[in-house]
Specification:
The chain is of the alpha+beta class. It is built from 19 helices and 28 strands. 34% of the residues lie in helices and 20% in strands. It comes from Magnetospirillum aberrantis SpK.
Length: 605
């Protein structure tokens, strides 16, 4: 799952924008919308689908560009406000905050009566198209579906689609068979009086059929589509080149294997049937085709999403073992790093990957490592390149956000450490703000909450210590994590954004990652992964309660902690966590690393 070509080798040529504008004019279009997404709306996209990066140079995991005849803009959220200005020619593309001014509002102010705004219906969800339609309508313009993408027409060296081989995800790691899962999903369809569901998210298909692939970087996904019928049978639309005899045997006779080119005809055969399509995940083209065929389209959630998020006992046991293995690698790295002069960001990231690769079942990283020293730590989704690579200097903070894919689990951890050397000590501001972030992190870790609680209701716990000091961070507190699947998984999350928030349920895995970022100076983030588990209630309690089990096993940097800013319960939690980390990892480490870990896990007082 190589991603070396995701970052452009140099500034994006302005001729690409000029060529696109010329093509739009030739087709009678006034503008065109270029999303980050591919046909599957996934976070990571294959090289042939990196249209936004090809056109603008922006390589973040979320964003969109709008090109008009004389204006163009790139829309990003708060994670990428610094990155977009570093990667994009701002004289050609205006950077716009996606939340403060969404594309629909920007377009409504700039489109003129009679304008024709183009979009590719395979690259936008139905909800996104509706927002674009409303914006165009307010301006008196027309939204035009372009089945032949005009950007693709001018992308002369566009790579071919990926054909990585599929692999069977063994029961040892999956815990339940594909037949069992398909049976459960079919029950849901029948209960909702549905004949079929269109599955467009490769992670849902991978989970449902117990398969994995390698078509996109960092996530073991096979790019494919599927139809699941109410009798439990399925049709899988996938390139034959990805299939081995072992995978065919695994899928069995109840899964009909077809070429992707057969999908439109298969949708047409659903005429008169009630068919579920997820408006938040499926491309608008599915709604268009099914409606034209005469199917009754049911707009509803992908039924695989929630069961996939609630890990079964085998998956949870795998997650614990994977985090144990991952903790060994990260602790070995931190012990290696301490006191080592001349290490730069790229070398640090490479060293950690090498240590992880020594662990059993390692299958690669779960996202590009964020290794930000000094001011680079303030760039929330920073990624070191040969041009930006910076040496870790004594007296500075180093933010390291990284994760791995193992057959038995997916990991994601952030630690912010003080770079030792030169007789320097952390500054009082850095220590205070690190400790405020740690307080919020501990508050989430210790949370006890009734069933039915959403992550948005818990988010304030992480932010309250920072708010009391007039501080905050411009990203979510936690995201869901898959089981040898996507490191960013829904529907669970911990965020200020309450729209569409899902109740937390036993078996869900989430990150816990509050932070603080001082632009041009340093960044702080502390992240563990947590599993939602049932909790014993107090005597006399009337509600069923849930709690979090911390999966990640790596110490925090005690040099950055101000113990007096923690209350007695917070200090006790940190000391107990450190004691658990040491007791669990020490038997798996060499003598030198074990000695380092003992010092790192010493009590705060």
């Amino acid at each position: 799952m190589d991603d070396d070509d995701e970052i452009p080798s140099g500034p994006v040529p302005g001729a690409r924008l000029d060529a696109l504008r010329a093509m739009l004019a030739a087709r009678g279009l006034s503008g065109f919308v270029v999303p980050r997404a591919d046909e599957h709306q996934g976070e990571y996209v294959a090289p042939n689908a990196r249209r936004l990066a090809w056109l603008t140079g922006f390589t973040g995991s979320a964003g969109m560009a709008v090109v008009l005849a004389t204006q163009a803009a790139v829309f990003v959220d708060g994670r990428y406000t610094l990155q977009v200005r570093a990667e994009v020619d701002t004289e050609r593309f205006e950077p716009v905050h996606l939340v403060d001014c969404p594309p629909s509002r920007w377009l409504a102010d700039r489109l003129r009566a009679g304008d024709r705004l183009g979009y590719d219906p395979w690259l936008h969800t139905a909800d996104q198209v509706e927002a674009l339609h409303n914006a165009a309508e307010r301006a008196g313009a027309v939204l035009v579906a372009c089945l032949d993408n005009p950007l693709d027409a001018v992308w002369n060296e566009r790579p071919p689609p990926p054909v990585a081989p599929l692999a069977v995800h063994a029961m040892t790691f999956a815990g339940r068979s594909s037949q069992e899962k398909r049976g459960d999903m079919a029950e849901i369809l029948r209960a909702d009086r549905l004949d079929a569901v269109v599955l467009t998210d490769p992670s849902s298909i991978a989970w449902l059929l117990n398969i994995r692939g390698g078509d996109v970087p960092y996530t073991p996904l096979p790019l494919c589509f599927a139809l699941l019928y109410a009798d439990g049978r399925a049709a899988l639309f996938v390139d034959d080149a990805k299939l081995s005899d072992a995978v065919r045997d695994h899928l069995g006779p109840e899964v009909d294997i077809r070429q992707p080119s057969e999908l439109p005809a298969a949708l047409d055969l659903l005429a008169g049937k009630r068919v579920r399509v997820d408006p938040n995940a499926a491309a608008s083209a599915f709604f268009d085709r099914l409606s034209a065929a005469g199917a009754q389209v049911d707009r509803g959630a992908d039924p695989c999403v929630l069961p996939k998020a609630c890990k079964n006992p085998v998956e949870l046991a795998g997650a614990r073992v994977a985090h144990l293995r991952d903790g060994v690698a990260v602790v070995r790295f931190l012990a290696w790093l301490e006191g080592r002069a001349g290490v730069d960001e790229l070398a640090a990231a490479a060293r950690l990957e090498t240590l992880r690769a020594e662990g059993e079942h390692f299958r690669g990283l779960s996202f590009p490592t964020i290794a930000g020293s000094g001011p680079h730590g303030a760039i929330v989704h920073y990624r070191a390149t040969p041009a930006s690579n910076r040496t870790l200097l004594p007296g500075e903070l180093f933010l390291l956000d990284s994760g791995a894919q193992y057959l038995d689990g997916t990991t994601d951890i952030t630690r912010t450490v003080f770079v030792r050397g030169g007789g320097r000590e952390p500054g009082p501001e850095e220590r205070e703000r690190f400790t405020l972030v740690l307080k919020g992190h501990v508050a989430i870790s210790r949370a006890l909450f009734p069933t039915g609680t959403t992550g948005s209701q818990l988010d304030v716990l992480a932010r309250q210590p920072l708010w009391r000091h007039g501080l905050d961070y411009d990203h979510g507190t936690g995201h869901g994590v898959g089981s040898f699947l996507s490191v960013h998984e829904g529907p669970q999350r911990i965020s200020k954004l309450g729209v569409g928030a899902a109740a937390l349920k036993s078996g869900m895995v989430l990150s816990n990652e509050p932070g603080y970022y001082k632009s041009g100076a340093y960044g702080i983030r502390t992240e563990n992964l947590l599993a939602v588990v049932a909790a014993d209630g107090p005597p006399g309690g009337e509600r069923e309660l849930l709690a979090f089990e911390t999966l990640t096993l790596v110490p925090y940097d005690r040099a950055l902690v101000v113990p007096d800013l923690l209350d007695a319960e917070e200090r006790a939690w940190v000391d107990a966590y450190h004691a658990r980390v040491e007791a669990t990892l020490a038997p798996l480490l060499d003598d030198a690393t074990r000695t380092w870990l003992a010092g790192a896990c010493a009590p705060l007082y």
